[in-house]
Design brief:
alpha+beta; 2 helices
């Protein structure tokens, strides 16, 4: 038997994870692979000032492919194109705010892009892969950094 849906908000009473998207953009400079990252603001406090891929929540009615390009632009000012799914991370404890399933997309950007922090990012920059580790990367984004490093 199907559950009834609330006419006002559309809720069906099921508790479901939220969907997030993250843009993974890379470039090579002076022989080093750099990744476009944002430095997080104060929320959640566990990730304050840590590096993360630009991303955020998928809005209701929004395609994740559109969401990843929107979040990239909002948080870095960089326009992306051609998002392709890289990986999915969905461990229930991966985000201290709530259960989130993260879709990580490879995104093409202009390698000469000069990012500027926007939305809830306090900084945005191209960071060499070798400068990121468990101490300065937010949450499970280090797993994606490791994937990129191992692919090279």
């Amino acid at each position: 038997m199907a559950r009834e849906t609330c006419d006002a908000c559309g809720s069906d009473g099921y508790k479901s994870p939220s969907v997030t998207v993250d843009a993974v953009a890379t470039r090579v400079r002076d022989g080093l692979t750099e990744v476009l990252m944002i430095q997080r603001g104060p929320n959640p406090i566990e990730w304050q000032h840590k590096w993360a891929f630009p991303g955020g929540f998928v809005d209701v009615g929004e395609d994740p492919l559109d969401a990843v390009l929107r979040e990239l632009r909002e948080e870095t000012g960089v326009c992306g194109r051609n998002p392709t799914l890289l990986t999915v991370l969905g461990s229930p404890g991966r985000d201290p705010r709530k259960h989130c399933v993260g879709l990580f997309y490879r995104v093409d950007v202009d390698a000469e892009s000069k990012p500027s922090a926007g939305d809830d990012a306090v900084n945005a920059d191209w960071i060499p892969l070798g400068m990121m580790d468990d101490e300065n990367v937010a949450g499970d984004h280090i797993q994606v950094i490791d994937m990129i490093s191992n692919a090279e």
